[in-house]
Specification:
By secondary structure, the chain is α+β, with helices and mostly antiparallel strands. 25% of the residues lie in helices and 17% in strands. Helix 1 runs antiparallel to helix 2. It is elongated. InterPro entries: OrsD.
């Protein structure tokens, strides 16, 4: 994986992604420096996003946070492992649709809890959160 610790997420293993990422804020790279990094990145054997395993929460609790990846506030479903999101509204929809539970009936004992999340990739279609 190519982890950009400045941005807090990984870059896709595609050369057409690297230059635009490195040209924009906060990097602002150009010329020889940009070319050198692209050549260096091209020399790596990088995993496809779908082949990257996300850490799972074990019996001992959440996964250990990965240094360099951004940590964000989120919500975790208490019924299933797939229910992870940054939006409380989305969590309420999840509980309603997936578990057929009306969120309004869970004011005293909700089926979700606040948590900290990480994901390797920031692109919407590649986001797979894990609890840390």
């Amino acid at each position: 994986l190519l982890l950009c610790t400045i941005c807090g997420h990984c870059l896709q293993p595609r050369p057409d992604v690297w230059a635009p990422h490195l040209r924009q804020h906060p990097h602002h790279l150009r010329g020889a420096q940009l070319k050198h990094l692209q050549e260096l990145f091209s020399s790596y054997r990088l995993a496809a996003p779908e082949d990257v395993d996300v850490p799972s929460s074990g019996k001992t609790g959440p996964a250990r946070a990965i240094r360099g990846l951004r940590v964000v506030d989120g919500w975790q479903c208490l019924v299933c492992e797939e229910g992870l999101t940054r939006s409380l509204a989305t969590m309420k929809v999840h509980v309603s649709k997936v578990h057929q539970q009306k969120p309004g009936g869970h004011k005293k004992q909700p089926l979700w809890r606040a948590c900290k999340l990480q994901t390797y990739f920031a692109e919407n279609r590649l986001i797979r959160y894990f609890v840390v």
